[in-house]
Amino acid sequence: MDKFENAVAAHYRADGLLERIDAGLRAGGADPARLTPEDLAPVDEFHVGGREATVYAISRMSLSAADHVLDVGCGLGGAARYVATKFGCSVAGIDLTPEFIDVARALTARLGLEGLVRLETASALAMPFADGAFDAAYSFHVAMNIPDRAGLYREIARVMRPAGRLCIYDIMKTGPGDVVYPVPWAETADTSHLTSPAETRALLEEAGFEVGEIEDRREFALQFFRQRLGGGVGDGPPPPPPLGIHLVMGGTWREKFKNTLENTAAGRIAPVQMIASRKAA
Fold first, then answer.
1. Which domain holds residue 48?
2. CB count, 10 Å around CB of 65?
3. Which value, in Å, is the radius of gyration of the alpha carbons in the chain?
4. Is the pTM of this model over 0.70?
5. Residue 87's domain is classified under what CATH number?
6. Phi and psi dihedrals of 128, rounded to 5?
């Protein structure tokens, strides 16, 4: 990894994460040794909307059991395990953060999904896969940390077959004004690299994709963050649930959620979903 990628990996580093997840599972009444994908859903999908957003995005991809699917920036592997369980297809996931992959592999093994889900530490700019290896790919809340956006989309295109489906779900710059930090993907602007939907579409097209759908999910995000933060006028903040992505984000999770809500409500940013297909060479 280069200096920038090391800084990104350090931002997401979460020592003792598996132990915290196990404690949260027990506190919520689940047995860490006898898990279901639903037990893990509150914690293992690190993007706006979590499992609900995953189900919605994947529903637009027309996957089947015969597909080989790529998860770019898989985090703890929640989306990959959902896809494998839902469709019976094989999923390969990569992530820059070694701690995430260690936990992701442990959780995947507990669910008995090692035969369908393969996860490894790697850069999204140099993936360890052959050209045309995948029928479909998705990437949820990953590109915000990658300044070489053109290189990212070229690399995804390289490993996809012609007509392969791609789903991008990322935070994008949607209006004027400086983003307030920290946010879940960055402590400061140094490791945050947002593009607009128009810029993202142009970059995807230059990389060899045809963009078919673009959806701004601002209202969905506002509802998500307001529900997570809770509390009415005069009320103190509610305690977090036993299991949630706050376990991944650490003690500053509430500030990061508040800032993301503020940035989204002000129109500076929004999560945007795009569905594209790989053009023939």
1. 3-278
2. 11
3. 18
4. yes
5. 3.40.50.150
6. -85, 50
